[in-house]
Amino acid sequence: MRFVIIGGGCYGIYHSGQLYKAIQKGKLPATSQLIMVDRNAEPPAKAKFGQEPNFSFVQADWHNFLMRFMQDPGQFEPERDRETVQIVPPPYAPHLFFEWLMAATEVALKARGLSGFQVKREGFDYPIRTPYEYIDPKNGNHFLSRAGWTCPATCIEPRSCPAVKDTRDWDLDQDLRAFVGGQPLKPSASARNALAQAGLANGPSNTALLETPPPGRYGGVETFTCHHFMYGIGTVPALRLYEARERMVRLALSLDETRPETRVAVGTVSHCHGVVATILLKRSL
To answer: Which fold has domain 2-90?
Structure first.
């Protein structure tokens, strides 16, 4: 196994420390590699783990590193590596994968000798009516949460939610896909009382007034799901990035004079929290 840990600060120390503990306890193969990426040459994580086995450190901008890593067959090759390469993102950079997907799609189209395509960022400005919802006016990032309470930073989002003391009956990945497809957010039954007491939304109160994306506006939804992997650490398989880029390229190639443009909702989500924006794909004819 190889783990690419984004960031060498406090979160990186915690994430790598937990994974290293799993290696030491035999829960992960002894040959597992922990690759820590930080823009600083001497991040705090290096001072703590620099002399330990299994660790390596890369000084790089996170976006530039992902671009190089995912393009280098020596680092990641989908048929060879499959699920054995996991990316551990920091919680404060949830749309790192969005930026990667937009840039990687452009690079892939150009590598195929294809020109005349535009790959642009747009916001996602449709209110979904989750308990927490905020649209950043600077970049259109749409932050969502199904929680109406403060979650611990290390919550693994168990099936039985400790905040409502009941079965978690929501999944933001499925919620986003359904909403883009024109279906209103399904209210949570298990969190109903907690959200009502807090005066927070639990889906639309009047579905007749709900604005969902018009049919045909979106040609797809790509979600990078960060779910619990082990010892309290959430990961995203590198394979998911590769698969998303390939779908984006195929979608771009499907555009023609009858449909010269389409959009893809792109979210980085866990079961309960996430952020979504839009990538516009346009073909000049």
So the answer is: Rossmann fold (3.40.50)
Tokens 């892939």 -> residue = 108
pLDDT in tens, 20-52: 999 999 999 999 999 999 999 999 999 999 999
Sequence-distant (≥ 6) Cβ neighbours of residue 277 within 8 angstroms: 95, 98, 121, 122, 123, 124, 139, 140, 141, 142, 265, 266
Distance CA 107, CA 102 (A): 9
Distance, CA of 233 to CA of 224 (rounded, Å):
15
Domain borders along the chain are 2-90, 97-283
φ, ψ dihedrals at 34, nearest 5°: -110, 105
Q: In the chain, where does DSSP find H-type helix? A: 10-24, 44-49, 62-71, 78-81, 96-111, 172-180, 192-198, 238-253
b/e burial code for range 65-87 (CB count within 10 A of at least 16 → b):
bbbebbeeeebbeeeebeeebbb
Whether the pTM exceeds 0.85: the reply is yes
Q: Tokens for 248?
A: 């984006």
d(CA 124, CA 104) in angstroms, rounded, equals: 21
Contact 134, 277 (CB under 8 A): no
Residue with tokens 């950079």: 93
Count CB atoms within 10 A of the CB of residue 224: 24
pLDDT digits (tens, 9 = 90+) for 77-129: 999 999 999 999 998 887 899 999 999 999 999 998 888 899 999 999 999 99
Q: Residues near 3 by Cβ (< 8 Å), separated by ≥ 6?
A: 16, 19, 32, 33, 34, 35, 85, 86, 87, 88, 235
